[in-house]
Structure formats: C-alpha cells, structure tokens
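Batch job 17 of 40 flagged for manual review because the log was empty.
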Amino acid sequence: MTGPAPLAVAGNVNVDLIMGPVAPWPRAGTEIMVEASELRYGGAAGNVSLAWAALGRDHQIAANTGRDPFGTWLRDGFAPRSAGWPVAGAGTTISLGLTHPDSERTFFTTRGHVDALSWAEVRAMIDWPKLAGGQLLVCGSFVTERLAAEYDALFAHAADRGVRIALDTGWPVAGWSAATRARVRGWVAHCHCLLLNEVETAGLTGGCTPEEAPATLLPQMPEGAIVVVKCGPGGAIAQTRGGTLHRVRAPRVTVADTIGAGDIFNAAVLAALSDGLPLGECLERGVQVASVAISTSPRRYGTRAAPASGGPPR
C-alpha cells in the first residue's frame, strides 16, 4: 500500500448547543444569562470527521440522523459523506453543553436518533474494499446502544476484511459496574487501538493510574495493539504491547472551549498512525492539534480552520 492507510469512523453525530459560562449552578425555577452560545455539528463521530476534514484527510463516516429539520442540517453539514446516512424515525439527538469558568462542562443529551443506528446500516454505509488495510474508529458506544449490541458482528466483519478497529467508548451512563467492565473488556479483545480518557480508564480497569493502565489492558488485546490514555492538561500516555511507555505533556494554553477535545485528539493520533509515524510522534501530533483546537475561537486544527457550521435549521 502506498500513501496513508484509509480511515473511517462509525458512531454518533448530533447537534451540540454550547452555552456558558455558568457559575454558580442556578436554583430551580430561576433564570440566568450567559455570555455566549453556539449551535454546531457534534457527537463523537461528528467531531472526529470534522477534524479529519480540517486536517485534509480523506475518510468515511457511518452515522444517522433524525427525521426533522435538525437532521437535514446535519446531513447538509457533512455532505457529501452523509449521502448514505439513514434517517431514523426519532427526533435528532441534541446535546446541551454548559461550560463553566474552570473549563469543565456539564452535558444534557436527549436519546434521540443515535439510539437507532444499527450494524446493518453501518455495514451498508462503509466501502469495505476501500477501507481494507486501514482503521475504523468506533465511538459513542453508550449512546449508540443498538449498534454496540452488535459489536461482535462488526468486529468480525472488519477483521475478515483487513480493517483494524480503534475504540473510544465514552462514559457509560450508569457508571462502570462490574457488568459494564466485563462487556467492554470483551470489546477490547478485538481492538487494535484503545483511546480513553483517564477517568474512563480508571473505571474500566478498576482504578489503575494512566501509567499502570496499558500494562493491565494490553495483554487482553491483539498483537501490536496500542493503549492511549488522554490526561487533559496532563497530556497523554501511550504504549504498545511489549513497547516503551510514551508520555507527551500538553502545552500551557489559554482555554477557549474544551468540548470535543478528546475526539479531536483521537482524529489527529489516528491520522498520524495512518501515516506510519512512530507512536511517540503520533501522541505529540494528537496533543498539538487538540491544544490548538481548545485554545482558538473560531476553532482551528493546527493551521486549518474548522469547517463552517452554517446557520441553524429553519
């Protein structure tokens, strides 16, 4: 194969309404005014696709939308890659992100259309011969429950076609119970790249630190697999099975907006891996691109601006 390995992402695309900053938390029955709001394309898969597009990376995206004006807006925003997206009977999923002065955020998300995304739909949307030899990022596992219930079939299909799986589950709504940990470890056994933040990593491993987590998780994964732990302002850690533990510190930046930072990091790391760069350089690329994104408004990815969101649906 010549050139970068092909890339694809499957998971949730939804509407993000970002408002804030909010402090202190309002008392029930009251109203407060905030400084800013922005309606934009979002969801874990959506954020990855936007980052790859801004970085100039060809890719595929498998997702769905709701049957309402917001669904049309999302499909228009991701065109032409959204041409084959199915339309669910439910309304479009909307995530309200409230930012806080300390750069933390709180999300309120409707279940909406993302719960209807199925493996049969994902299988039909992806050009598997084109993706052969590349990577498929599967994300938003706990908000795309119908798809997650069929991960075994997805993973087997990808393996048969020479496609490596990268996984970012997100946070389980009900927390990391013993049953959830066992379920996710079953997924991990088929994944060549696991990308979690430090809180998710601690939940999955039962309390391991970021430095300890790769040694715990890698023996459960295929030969040559990679575990990446995103540590926010602390940068990121990564290790391959039997390899050196890499750590990259994040630069000090003035934070404008951290929403989607982990997804943007994922996009940059996977793009660098598709270029065949060493793991340490891939980690550096992810931290650099995510740091630029969270410190710019309008958002930028490295030297490129984010794709325009357009106006709200009418």
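Reviewer: the log was empty due to a logging misconfiguration, but the result itself is present. Residues 22 and 29 are 16 Å apart (CA to CA). Unflagging and moving on to job 18.
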